[in-house]
Design brief:
With 172 residues, the chain is α/β, with parallel strands linked by helices. It contains 4 helices and 6 strands; from the N terminus they run E-H-E-E-H-E-H-E-H-E. It has a 6-stranded parallel beta sheet, sandwiched between helices.
Length: 172
């Protein structure tokens, strides 16, 4: 299997890339242009592309031979506007590029447990737990992650892709 991993140089992404490589999968790793050196564990084994998802005209070429997109990139700091662009808008740009490429049909998206409505959640969180109904009363990150999921669900439905949204809590 060949995976395209966005956010590959991040805390979660670097570990996901390492695990995929260690399991014998081919990886195309998208890292920000300003990212430091790639981790030693996968530097010579992954196809590394330095790119800004906000403006990457070559996105379609990233999907050549790719079976699954593992989309981990998001903006967690900065203004609410920056978080929205770095999460929701970049996801739409990326998935539109995937649609135009036409070959990849599977998406794994790193969501966030911040999208749950904590005032309505009861007991253990599940996929059926209610999502935040008033995100604009929370924070920019919650808004960005909810919209990111909406964009991914819409494009997956329109293009008959499989989509798995993972909503991790604390990652350490």
């Amino acid at each position: 299997m060949r995976a395209l991993v966005t956010g590959a140089a991040g805390f979660l992404g670097s570990r996901v890339v390492t695990q995929l490589l260690d399991r014998g999968h081919a990886v195309r790793a998208i890292v920000r242009p300003a990212s430091l050196a790639t981790p030693d564990e996968w530097r010579d084994r992954a196809d590394v592309i330095r790119a800004d998802l906000r403006a990457a005209p070559e996105i379609e070429s990233w999907f050549e031979g790719v079976d699954v997109l593992v989309h981990l990139a998001a903006t967690v700091r900065g203004s609410p506007e920056a978080q929205f662009v770095g999460s929701a808008v970049c996801t739409e740009i990326l998935l539109e590029g995937m649609r135009r490429a036409g070959s990849t049909k599977h998406v794994v998206l790193a969501g966030s447990c911040s999208v749950y409505d904590w005032t309505e959640a009861r007991g253990t969180l599940t996929e059926d737990s209610p999502l935040e109904s008033r995100p604009y009363e929370r924070d920019g990150y919650t808004v960005a992650k909810l919209w990111q999921e909406r964009v991914a669900r819409r494009l997956a439905a329109e293009n008959n892709w499989t989509l798995a949204v993972l909503r991790p809590g604390l990652i350490y």
